[in-house]
Amino acid sequence: MNIHAALDALEAFLGQRLSRSKSDLSLHGESETHFPRMPPDAVAYPETTAEVSRIMQICARHGCPVIAWGAGTSLEGHTSAVKGGVTLDMGRMNRVLDIQAADMDVRVQPGVTREALNAELRATGLFFPIDPGANATLGGMAATRASGTTAVRYGTMRDNVLALEVVLADGRVIRTGTRARKSSAGYDLTALFVGSEGTLGIITELTLRLHGQPEAISAGVCAFEGFHGAVNAVIETIQMGLPLARMEFLDEASAAAVNAYAGMTFPEKPHLLFELHGSPDSVAEDAQRFGDIVTDHGSSGFEWSDRTQDRKTLWAMRHNAFYAILALRPGARSLVTDICVPISRLAQAVEETRADIAQSGLAGPILGHVGDGNFHAILLVDPAEPSEMAAAKAVSHRMVKRSLALGGTATGEHGVGLGKRDYMAKEHGDGWAVMGQLKQALDPLDLLNPGKLVP
Amino acid sequence: MNIHAALDALEAFLGQRLSRSKSDLSLHGESETHFPRMPPDAVAYPETTAEVSRIMQICARHGCPVIAWGAGTSLEGHTSAVKGGVTLDMGRMNRVLDIQAADMDVRVQPGVTREALNAELRATGLFFPIDPGANATLGGMAATRASGTTAVRYGTMRDNVLALEVVLADGRVIRTGTRARKSSAGYDLTALFVGSEGTLGIITELTLRLHGQPEAISAGVCAFEGFHGAVNAVIETIQMGLPLARMEFLDEASAAAVNAYAGMTFPEKPHLLFELHGSPDSVAEDAQRFGDIVTDHGSSGFEWSDRTQDRKTLWAMRHNAFYAILALRPGARSLVTDICVPISRLAQAVEETRADIAQSGLAGPILGHVGDGNFHAILLVDPAEPSEMAAAKAVSHRMVKRSLALGGTATGEHGVGLGKRDYMAKEHGDGWAVMGQLKQALDPLDLLNPGKLVP
Fold this sequence. Notes:
Two copies of one chain form a homodimer. The first copy, chain A, has helices at 3-14, 22-27, 49-62, 114-121, 138-143, 151-154, 157-160, 189-193, 227-239, 252-262, 280-296, 308-319, 321-326, 346-360, 386-405, 424-428, 430-442, and strands at 18-19, 42-44, 66-69, 86-89, 96-100, 105-108, 126-127, 161-167, 173-176, 202-209, 211-212, 216-223, 244-250, 271-278, 302-305, 333-336, 339-340, 366-368, 374-381.
């Protein structure tokens, strides 16, 4: 491994678009959560697939690690340069290449953010629904198999990436998938790269599935006396097959944080936030049925609104909940957990987690995409107090153990990165070794995001 | 490679459950379509995962090929024993293991057929929607990434397999996926094995996603003066986001075949057959909107029915269309094509295919799952006339070329097997080499269904 030789060659190739400035390195070594800063040796700003391919060839020749970077909104340390090397900032590959409205698909470069894409789509009557909260890049969202508030209706990135262009560790460029809606033509390479977290290749183009902008949207919020009512209302809604487009849970501590941060006036109780998409008739019918369910589970009823501004306020509030919770304790860092269990086990998983957090003495509001069985506790720790981080890690550890025991997963949507790697053997058994074999087959020199995900 | 030593060891292990009877070998060497009979050297009937693992270990030691067998309904020669070896008939592993109604999932052994599963589910209010027509096994359906008439609404096997148990080439048993609805915990091994056609491992258990039996179902049929009207009605329906549960096309020749075979009285015109699932109100609303669309495209309107018996007759007829078409020419064999294109290219793809078949002089009715952009021509050939088979292969070849040029795939749902292997390099480019690298990583001795799918 000769990183310096690689950097010299890259500099000769990219000129100013290879940065070694301290601020650039530091920025690309940051984590949104509790991981220590681990900067790369350089940051490259490629502008074309051919450049990415050439960069990979140079790095392969010199054994230099390569880490792909989208918007840096990952929560599990995915982009930390644990072995140094070059971070590829894909931000300049940010063009929407081809909107095929009749086929409801779009081809984009990986640095396009989801908000930028939706702005571009506005006039077409179509939209890209996956919404992890942060304004992540689509390349990053594919790499981490992101989902978020709308997965309960529209699925995750797994379900909405039709095709990819990928640069492999040796610089070869492949295209996976086609624009056809389905195919049985061999191994599903698209699905293999979605969620591979930059360890198998660099995504340089994506073909995404679009959806029709709903004719009617209604959003609303309802409070419950206790979290059991809220969780059971979710379970019944899913089991009845009511097609809610979003169904989010905020516990009382999260509601309080949002009130303080955004000047809202939610009662300090567990809440469900929800949204319905459809025709005006179907939305009205579904709202009626959902209203019956929440009333049965002890909510005093819900407020809902068809007004765009009200909806925007509601979801902006939900999306800022992470920052609202961080603001509860100035100077704190967060450890964000992310388990996902079968829906029948959701009440048990939330209840045991609440009790565990209470016993730990930490602040740890709970919120999440409960329609999928997925929820997060945001554990707040003083970075200067090692005992607090240890307590938070212990809570997180028990949450994962609980999730696996209940038939769930260690990470519903945040990915493995550094934070969940230690659980992969437990979750997958020999399947983790198989992941290692696949990695070895496609990246035998371990150039691509080394130290992450695989054994 | 020492097949005989393997068979001796397998016989010592399995006793009577290793068959070398002529009729068994012949049956397991058959193809539903035009492929020559290629029987294995023996057929094993395992009853447990542990037995499959032990069989794989024995075969690995002796370098003996292993081919998994479900119901033998594959259309692309997937189960042909091109290098001899042992066929694993999974028919005895046919138990429904665990229905989790609250989570809408079920764990089954691979030899359970889709009809057997749905019979077992009837009282639960749930069903498994994927319907390729044939009463295939669920293991076989997963291995070929099957879909069929309901994919337009419920997706394919890709979308409905949550988790798998797989025996690898070296006998290791892994579990992929969990019962959680989503996960970002590493490479999507479930998606890798779905569609791998028995070349990466033997599926010994599946966890499947279930759906609620719709409250209301309506099915119907409408005739068009020309195929353009039918195809354009499909395109508009998809683009408007109308959630039809099935949307099938039969051309005039297919309609005539069905009339002759099943005593039906369809006008000899292009038809759409369709089905709606939902609440009584939503089905009525959708039927109204669909009626407007087909009328706009020149149909004289449709007949539809909520009666179970009428629906059963309609879909039995559709499912027997393959045999009805075969019966048009007694003694004929079929070459069944299977292309899938972006919906905006569907009219062009069908039109050019019709013209091509007409010019070839062959009988080749067209039908398919046009809601996905997927259709089949069933080319009838006299097996004693090599020139006819050559003409059919040439038509099929041009169809694939056309599909790829239009942004589609060589196979929408039938898989690669022997029949589409020659197109994989063209469809995937270097991606096919990547598939070969994955195969090499997991099955370095090329034991699992050799001669299929990969380079």
